[in-house]
Each structure stands twice: as C-alpha cells, then as structure tokens.
Design brief:
By secondary structure, the protein is mostly helical. It contains eight helices and no strands. It has one domain. It starts with a helix and ends with a helix.
Length: 195
Amino acid sequence: MFRFHTQFLTLLFVLTASAAAAHTGEGINTGFASGFWHPILGWDHVVAMVAVGLWGAFLGQPAIWMLPVVFPLVMAFGGALGIIGAPLPAVETGIALSGVVLGLLIAFAVRAPIWVAAVIVGAFAIFHGHAHGTELPQQFNAYGYAIGFVVGTGLLHLAGIAFGFLTRMEIGRAAVRGTGGLIALVGAAFLFGFA
C-alpha cells in the first residue's frame, strides 16, 4: 500500500512540475510533442476542450461529431494567425470566457441549434488557436507543432464525449451538468485572475 501511495505522489509531482512549463515549450524537444502537450497541460485549454466534447454529447447527433471537428479546424486557422503574428485582442480573456460560456451551456442544459453551437465553438476556437500559434517555440517546425496541438485537442474532445455518454442515465445527466458548472467556475477563475 505504501508503495502505491509513493508511486501516485511521484506521478502527481511529475505532472504538476510539467504543467508549470505548459505554455513555454520547456523540456519538450520536438514540434509535435510541444504542440501536443500545450493544450493538455494548460487547464484553461483543458476545460474548454473537454466542454466541447461534453456539449456535443449532450446535444446528440450531429453535434457529437460536428463540434469536435469544427473546433480544431477553426483552431488551426487561429493558430496560423498566431504564427504569422496577426494581432487578436483579448486572447486570454476569450480563452477564459470559453470555459465560462461552454460550462454554463452544459450546466443549464442549453439545446442550441447546430449552427448556433458551431458558431459559438468556432468563435472560441480562434482564441485557443491564436494562443497556440503565438506560443510556438522558435526552434520547432510550425507544421509539426500544429498537428500536435490539433491531435491533443482531439483527445480532449474525445474525453468530453466519453464522459458525455453518461447523459443516457438520469444520474449521468446530473453529473454532466455538474461538470459543466465546475468548468464554468474554472473558466471564471482564469477570467478573474484566480488561477
């Protein structure tokens, strides 16, 4: 039992230490790996991208696959804008708001038409992509980095979709809506500078 706790604590410390370097590319030695870990190690990105999958699962077909496709496509466009240095105001605010808004949409079980949902998700994807693009470490290939952050984002969407399947049960719907509320709180913490 002691060995399990020691291993768990070691893993926790390693993940925590890595998260501190999530936005710098430190300690990651390839463009793909840096891009892949960027969304996964930044909680501001994680909550929004999991929320996209959750909301898609909550809305059902065709949103369950459409939203997780729209987000990375538009995010790649935002990433290209960031890489070429095109200005985009209030990027960090947009990222934080994505957690707040998407979390609230889930918490309040909002059933938006698919085109409205796609516009909301796409608008927030531009901010996430721009942040990824501007934080591209100079020594890495932009294409590898972009593929990495799209793959990392896709995995976070899949995690949200998987958790969203709980909506098939009454208690699962409550858990998903509660998670939406938690996502909104995390987004608010970033928005108001508490995180």
